[in-house]
Amino acid sequence: MKRRAFIRSGLVSAAVLAFLGSNGKVNAAENVKKDPSKNSTLKTPHPQEPFHLGMAGWTFNKFDLLKTLETMKQLDVHYLCIKDFHLPLDSSDADIANFHKKLAEYDVIGYGVGPIYMKSEVEVDRAFAYAQRVGVKVLVGVPNYELLDYVEQKVKQYDIKLAIHLHGPDMPMYPNAEDIWNNVKDRDARMGMCLDIGHNLRYGSDSLSDLKKYHTRVFDIHLKDVTGTTKADKSVELGRGRIDFPLFIKLLRKYNYTGSVSLEYEKDMSNPFMGIAESVGYFRGVCYATK
Fold it and tell me: Do the domain assignments include residue 241?
């Protein structure tokens, strides 16, 4: 019995010593509970980035506007590049007003429109008039090469930035960032590109090097990851492919990119929601980890 009492007494003493410091005060672990700021491992609030995370409307081409906005609300994403299947090019002013009202209900801003293909002057006129009526300053477009002189006139007339979208090896027009640069570098400074970092890589171009070289004409970015550098390679969740996202985000900060970085998720498009959520979470995590 004496032995048991001694053991019990020792255990109690050990517990007391663990709770009390050598000077009789509550130990550091208890202090942390009372004052979390003393814990140096706590994540500090993340500073505002110069750019903002958005969604490319094409991601939701199989879903209506309501499903798009519900998904964005769940993800806490607030910027949308508007596609014409959600807001047709011939929408009335009332339709456009109702559209913006619906976006506002979900705390979403339509920052740009497109991509819009332009194969004639009539289609150029319609695209720029649509962008103006929608009230955006970025038109993501794909005008035929022979229309660029006419497009430049419209850029000046409307004071709207044209972000030419590249499609990598999937179409002959504007296959990569270099091709767009060569077609706009001597034109109005409001003519630039929507840098699709996935399609650009699938063409065999180095998307991050191209961001360095052409950043002055990058007005929009389509965010995706791909498995490799050929036409046969596919879109995957961010972080599972070949894009170096820590470096990508550092470059956005270095060049003070202030536009949208919009996820264009093209895998499992009939049921993309798990992949979208994973990609958004990964991108935000890398932003935090690289500060």
Answer: yes
